[in-house]
Task: inverse folding
């Protein structure tokens, strides 16, 4: 018992940097380039409070994980939404950002593999976004919370792998996804030491850090053999394939995602996200998340989670079928 160090325990920070080197061949200083967090959501939002002043302009994708735009809004910032498009595979098109906007922007939040879309971005995109941020002197905030939930041989890219990435950015991770520690409230941020120090300074006035026992547990998780990771990845791959096949039998053509624990599913023709989600809940008792909860750019889609076993997912599909719900037909009555 007792208050942990504000900067986290030395052993957990070392485990973080060792994990980073093992996964990405990136060397980090555990004394300044890694900071434990009360979950990545806390860190993402508090980073905005640390750096965004009223009126500052922040770039955020749309759709996006809500903390990416709500944190800056809470801090008094202004959001320039970068509309993501299915025809661009839900990847940010930097060419869509006007020069006049980029010149004013202070921070750019982004997230690949993506929640909610499940999109992945090639390494070339990361090189382009680093060059873009350096040109316009923008801080990059990359949310890599699905770093290890990847399938079919795909390996997500770290911002810090890219030359110059650490000069202008930080990367957030959570223990909730890969290591099934949701609710434990533990994650971490790595990258530029000056940016991290600003976040740490704010947090010393808001919290006392993560309970030391949880840091010890997270340290153990990061040191697990790769066999554990492969089992987790295979579990989610099986669920992905099972659900895509089942939805296909109901008329949906859902692309096979290479990462995350979600499917990004289009609503039936002519039905909006909220109406579809409510109708599914009322008719089947199955919960899906309306895409517009992640911003206006998510309208027309719902996010479906893969956190349940295939047997449970099969029950959801059976209820869809019994209720007459398919991609080509949905009665809202």
Result:
């Amino acid at each position: 018992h007792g208050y942990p160090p504000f900067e986290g325990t030395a052993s957990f920070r070392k485990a973080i940097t060792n994990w980073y080197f093992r996964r990405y061949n990136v060397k980090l200083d555990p004394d300044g380039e890694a900071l434990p967090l009360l979950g990545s959501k806390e860190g993402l939002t508090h980073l905005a409070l640390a750096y965004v002043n009223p009126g500052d302009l922040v770039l955020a994708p749309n759709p996006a994980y809500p903390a990416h735009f709500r944190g800056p809004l809470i801090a008094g910032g202004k959001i320039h939404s970068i509309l993501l498009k299915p025809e661009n595979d839900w990847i940010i098109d930097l060419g869509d950002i006007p020069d006049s906007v980029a010149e004013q922007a202070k921070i750019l939040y982004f997230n690949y593999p993506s929640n909610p879309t499940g999109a992945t971005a090639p390494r070339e995109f990361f090189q382009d976004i680093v060059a873009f941020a350096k040109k316009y002197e923008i801080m990059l905030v990359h949310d890599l919370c699905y770093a290890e939930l990847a399938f079919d041989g795909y390996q997500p890219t770290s911002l810090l792998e890219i030359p110059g990435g650490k000069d202008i950015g930080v990367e957030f991770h959570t223990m909730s996804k890969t290591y099934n520690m949701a609710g434990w409230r533990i994650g971490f941020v790595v990258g530029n030491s000056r940016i991290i120090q600003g976040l740490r300074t704010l947090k010393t006035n808001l919290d006392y850090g993560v309970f030391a026992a949880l840091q010890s547990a997270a340290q153990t998780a990061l040191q697990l053999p790769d066999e554990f990771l492969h089992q987790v990845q295979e579990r989610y791959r099986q669920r992905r394939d099972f659900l895509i096949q089942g939805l296909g039998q109901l008329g949906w053509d859902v692309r096979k995602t290479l990462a995350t624990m979600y499917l990004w599913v289009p609503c039936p023709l002519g039905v909006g996200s909220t109406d579809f989600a409510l109708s599914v809940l009322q008719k089947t008792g199955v919960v899906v998340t309306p895409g517009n909860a992640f911003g206006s750019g998510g309208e027309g889609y719902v996010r479906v989670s893969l956190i349940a076993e295939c047997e449970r997912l099969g029950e959801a599909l059976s209820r869809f079928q019994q209720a007459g719900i398919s991609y080509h037909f949905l009665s809202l009555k």
Remarks:
- Residues 226-249 form the longest helix (24 residues).
